[in-house]
Write a structure and sequence with these properties.
With 316 residues, this protein is α/β, with parallel strands linked by helices. The protein contains twelve helices and seven strands. Strands 3-2-4-1-5-6-7 form a seven-stranded parallel beta sheet, with helices on both faces. Helix 8 links the parallel strand 5 and strand 6. Bound molecules: guanosine-5'-triphosphate and magnesium ion. Magnesium ion binds next to helix 4.
Length: 316
């Protein structure tokens, strides 16, 4: 997609004002498979407008289907708007690909309804393309773009296993959302997932008896894991209910006060390697081992260098 620099600057200015259409247009641009030129110009333009996304926090919400991730994000958004501040948030919901329509399922299922004219919140859904490991390959670029405009970027993904690991790579802070019983804890422990999230949310706490027994089971499991990993603290566990609103304010406070160490250059490297591996396999990975990763190079600079290396070897 070729967009003149002046038009790009105009779209950025619009998105910066909180307008949804210019932002959606920019997102569509980075979601395309052949987006290199577009991204290169876009991120150059963003950075020369002083928009680096450096101060934006990315928060992952993952968990089993139906645990209440969307409802929770809806409540957080509502609470976020009530609070008296000028901060902004974006929510990206990554849906399981619909094998029936090929499109996103979220429209039918989400309980998230936001005021349409509200400029402080932006909502976007993306089909996940499960065969590629849960997170759509363009998700990274979309997140990177949203960080330039929003203080908080939330990512919702569904499923257990690989998905969570992929999301936690993009998130500065990750939550695993569980619902009472259902054998979740045992399943999660089996898949090694307990090591991934920074924090847990036990939602549907209005189902009091079940929630209490699940809560204790979760704490016991976490204490057991902690004993196996000396030096690790017990992660926070939030009990929430989107029905009674229990724990929502506390959860939002926790997120707003969180101050995790953010290393975007490591993320850039990881994402580049992941993409090269998808495209060129281990051959590609070997060729880019010695790229000049140090320093804060942007993704497109490294991407161009990586392609050069690979092309050099392919044309021999
Ligand atoms: N009792 C109770 N039900 C809840 C709560 N939160 C969500 N639900 C219900 O749980 C169901 C699933 O909620 P969603 O928010 O769509 O869950 P989700 O995790 O986003 O679901 P997927 O995106 O399909 O994986 C809905 O019927 C909600 O009304 C809660 O706190 N208590
Ligand atoms: Mg959902």
């Amino acid at each position: 997609m070729k967009i003149p620099r002046s038009e790009l600057a105009e779209l950025i200015a619009g998105a910066r004002e909180g307008e949804k259409f210019p932002l959606a247009k920019l997102i569509s641009g980075v979601e395309r498979p052949d987006s290199f030129e577009f991204r290169k110009n876009l991120f150059e333009e963003l950075s020369s407008s002083g928009l680096s996304g450096k101060n934006s926090l990315t928060i992952g919400f993952t968990g089993t289907p139906g645990a209440g991730k969307s409802s929770l994000l809806g409540e957080l958004a509502t609470q976020f708007l009530k609070a008296d501040h000028e901060e902004t948030m974006a929510i990206v919901a990554i849906d399981p690909s619909s094998h029936i329509s090929g499109g996103s399922l979220l429209g039918d299922r989400t309980r998230l309804s936001l005021p349409a004219r509200e400029k402080r919140i932006y909502f976007r859904s993306q089909p996940s393309q499960l065969e590629l490991g849960g997170v759509n390959p363009y998700t990274y670029h979309v997140i990177r773009l949203l960080r330039c405009f929003f203080r908080y970027v939330f990512i919702e993904t569904v499923g257990i296993g690989q998905n969570e690991i992929e999301v936690s790579k993009l998130a500065d802070l990750s939550f695993l959302v569980l619902q009472p019983l259902g054998g979740d804890q045992v399943q999660f422990m089996k898949s090694g997932i307990m090591e991934v999230p920074d924090s847990f949310i036990l939602n549907k706490s209005d189902e009091t008896a079940l929630a209490n027994s699940s809560y204790h089971m979760l704490i016991t499991t976490l204490e057991f894991l902690k004993d196996m990993m000396p030096g690790k603290n017990l992660p926070p566990v939030f009990k929430t209910s989107t029905k009674t609103k229990q724990g929502i304010v506390e959860l939002l406070d926790f997120i707003r006060k969180a101050n995790p160490a953010i290393d975007r250059s490591l993320e850039t490297q990881l994402q580049l390697k992941k993409w090269i591996k998808n495209e060129y396999g281990n051959f590609g990975l070997r060729k880019i081992e010695n790229l000049p990763y140090s320093g804060s190079k942007d993704f497109e600079t490294l991407e161009a260098l990586a392609l050069q290396e690979i092309q050099k070897n392919l044309s021999l």
